[in-house]
Design brief:
Elements (H helix, E strand, L loop, with lengths): L4 H11 L2 H10 L4 E2 H5 L6 H14 L2 E6 L2 E6 L1 H44 L2
Antiparallel strand pairs: 1-3, 2-3
Helix pairs in contact: 1-4
Protein backbone atom coordinates (compact mmCIF):
# COMPACT_ATOMS: atom_id res chain seq x y z
CA UNK A 1 0.00 0.00 0.00
CA UNK A 2 2.89 2.36 0.75
CA UNK A 3 4.04 1.97 -2.86
CA UNK A 4 1.19 4.07 -4.16
CA UNK A 5 0.82 6.43 -1.22
CA UNK A 6 1.45 9.51 -3.37
CA UNK A 7 -1.25 8.34 -5.78
CA UNK A 8 -3.68 8.05 -2.89
CA UNK A 9 -2.71 11.55 -1.76
CA UNK A 10 -3.66 12.86 -5.20
CA UNK A 11 -6.92 10.94 -5.24
CA UNK A 12 -7.99 12.21 -1.84
CA UNK A 13 -6.98 15.76 -2.79
CA UNK A 14 -9.18 15.45 -5.85
CA UNK A 15 -12.07 14.21 -3.74
CA UNK A 16 -11.62 16.93 -1.12
CA UNK A 17 -13.32 19.57 -3.25
CA UNK A 18 -17.16 19.65 -3.45
CA UNK A 19 -17.14 20.81 -7.08
CA UNK A 20 -14.95 17.89 -8.12
CA UNK A 21 -17.08 15.45 -6.14
CA UNK A 22 -20.20 16.82 -7.85
CA UNK A 23 -18.54 16.38 -11.25
CA UNK A 24 -17.65 12.79 -10.40
CA UNK A 25 -21.20 12.14 -9.20
CA UNK A 26 -22.57 13.50 -12.48
CA UNK A 27 -20.12 11.39 -14.48
CA UNK A 28 -21.34 8.36 -12.55
CA UNK A 29 -24.46 8.61 -14.71
CA UNK A 30 -22.46 8.66 -17.92
CA UNK A 31 -20.02 10.71 -19.95
CA UNK A 32 -20.69 14.42 -20.37
CA UNK A 33 -19.28 17.42 -22.17
CA UNK A 34 -17.37 20.09 -20.27
CA UNK A 35 -20.13 22.64 -20.93
CA UNK A 36 -22.79 20.27 -19.55
CA UNK A 37 -20.68 19.57 -16.48
CA UNK A 38 -19.96 23.27 -15.89
CA UNK A 39 -23.59 24.40 -16.25
CA UNK A 40 -24.73 23.92 -12.61
CA UNK A 41 -21.73 25.78 -11.19
CA UNK A 42 -21.55 29.53 -10.76
CA UNK A 43 -17.97 29.93 -11.94
CA UNK A 44 -16.11 30.99 -15.04
CA UNK A 45 -15.18 28.24 -17.48
CA UNK A 46 -11.42 28.69 -16.93
CA UNK A 47 -11.94 28.14 -13.20
CA UNK A 48 -14.08 25.09 -13.88
CA UNK A 49 -11.42 23.74 -16.23
CA UNK A 50 -8.93 23.77 -13.34
CA UNK A 51 -11.17 21.27 -11.56
CA UNK A 52 -11.41 19.14 -14.69
CA UNK A 53 -7.62 19.17 -15.13
CA UNK A 54 -7.16 18.24 -11.46
CA UNK A 55 -9.52 15.29 -11.87
CA UNK A 56 -7.79 14.26 -15.07
CA UNK A 57 -4.31 14.49 -13.51
CA UNK A 58 -5.46 12.40 -10.56
CA UNK A 59 -6.62 9.76 -13.03
CA UNK A 60 -10.25 9.85 -11.92
CA UNK A 61 -11.49 11.01 -15.31
CA UNK A 62 -10.25 11.12 -18.86
CA UNK A 63 -11.21 13.66 -21.45
CA UNK A 64 -11.51 13.27 -25.16
CA UNK A 65 -11.83 16.07 -27.66
CA UNK A 66 -13.95 15.60 -30.74
CA UNK A 67 -14.19 18.71 -32.85
CA UNK A 68 -14.90 21.57 -30.47
CA UNK A 69 -16.45 19.39 -27.78
CA UNK A 70 -14.41 17.89 -24.94
CA UNK A 71 -16.12 14.95 -23.26
CA UNK A 72 -15.29 13.64 -19.78
CA UNK A 73 -15.57 10.01 -18.70
CA UNK A 74 -14.97 8.35 -15.34
CA UNK A 75 -11.89 6.15 -14.99
CA UNK A 76 -13.46 3.47 -12.84
CA UNK A 77 -10.17 1.62 -12.29
CA UNK A 78 -8.89 4.47 -10.12
CA UNK A 79 -11.85 4.07 -7.82
CA UNK A 80 -10.80 0.45 -7.26
CA UNK A 81 -7.55 1.71 -5.72
CA UNK A 82 -9.53 3.86 -3.30
CA UNK A 83 -11.91 1.03 -2.52
CA UNK A 84 -9.02 -1.36 -1.82
CA UNK A 85 -7.36 1.10 0.52
CA UNK A 86 -10.61 1.82 2.35
CA UNK A 87 -11.33 -1.91 2.64
CA UNK A 88 -7.91 -2.47 4.20
CA UNK A 89 -8.51 0.36 6.66
CA UNK A 90 -11.97 -1.00 7.51
CA UNK A 91 -10.51 -4.45 8.21
CA UNK A 92 -7.81 -2.97 10.47
CA UNK A 93 -10.33 -0.93 12.48
CA UNK A 94 -12.85 -3.76 12.71
CA UNK A 95 -10.13 -6.01 14.12
CA UNK A 96 -9.20 -3.32 16.65
CA UNK A 97 -12.80 -2.75 17.75
CA UNK A 98 -13.33 -6.53 18.01
CA UNK A 99 -10.31 -6.79 20.32
CA UNK A 100 -11.60 -3.83 22.36
CA UNK A 101 -15.03 -5.46 22.64
CA UNK A 102 -13.42 -8.71 23.84
CA UNK A 103 -11.40 -6.78 26.42
CA UNK A 104 -14.50 -4.96 27.73
CA UNK A 105 -16.51 -8.20 27.91
CA UNK A 106 -13.67 -9.96 29.75
CA UNK A 107 -13.41 -7.05 32.19
CA UNK A 108 -17.19 -7.13 32.81
CA UNK A 109 -17.04 -10.87 33.41
CA UNK A 110 -14.13 -10.44 35.81
CA UNK A 111 -16.02 -7.74 37.75
CA UNK A 112 -19.16 -9.93 37.94
CA UNK A 113 -17.06 -12.82 39.24
CA UNK A 114 -15.40 -10.56 41.84
CA UNK A 115 -18.79 -9.21 42.94
CA UNK A 116 -20.17 -12.75 43.37
CA UNK A 117 -17.22 -13.70 45.53
CA UNK A 118 -17.66 -10.60 47.71
CA UNK A 119 -21.38 -11.12 48.23
CA UNK A 120 -21.13 -14.90 48.47
CA UNK A 121 -23.72 -15.49 45.78
Amino acid sequence: MENYSSELDGLFQALADPTRRAVLARLGHGSASISDLAEPFDMALPSFMKHVRFLEESGLIRTQKQGRVRTCTLERARFAMLENWLSEQRAIWEARTDRLEQLVLAKQEFLRHEQKQETGR
